[in-house]
Design brief:
77% of the residues lie in helices and 0% in strands. By secondary structure, it is mainly α. The longest helix is centred in the last third of the chain and has 38 residues. The chain is elongated and about 75 Å long. The termini are far apart. 0% of the residues are buried.
Length: 86
């Protein structure tokens, strides 16, 4: 199990590095290249450099909030059930 964890961790680290490099180039370095440069063909429109992370953040916060909310509701139901049976 230890070797597979290392492979998974290495793969995740490599994927994070690739995503970081791509996004950094897209959002921070692309404005310094001439608009007619071929490098612009590898990236979507710059407005998506803001929209995409904002959408991911919104979905993430919604998922975390939903999880916390459902956990609180379940715990309150368990407490109420215990009080009724006691």
């Amino acid at each position: 199990m230890g070797a597979s964890d290392k492979v998974l961790g290495g793969t995740m680290l490599l994927a994070a590095g690739v995503v970081f490099t791509y996004y950094t180039t897209w959002a921070m370095l692309l404005p310094f290249f001439d608009p007619s440069s071929e490098i612009h063909n590898f990236f979507p429109s710059r407005e998506w450099a803001v929209r995409l992370p904002a959408a991911i953040l919104l979905v993430g916060i919604t998922a975390i909030g939903s999880f916390v909310g459902s956990t609180v509701i379940k715990e309150n139901r368990k407490k109420a059930q215990r009080l009724r049976t006691a």
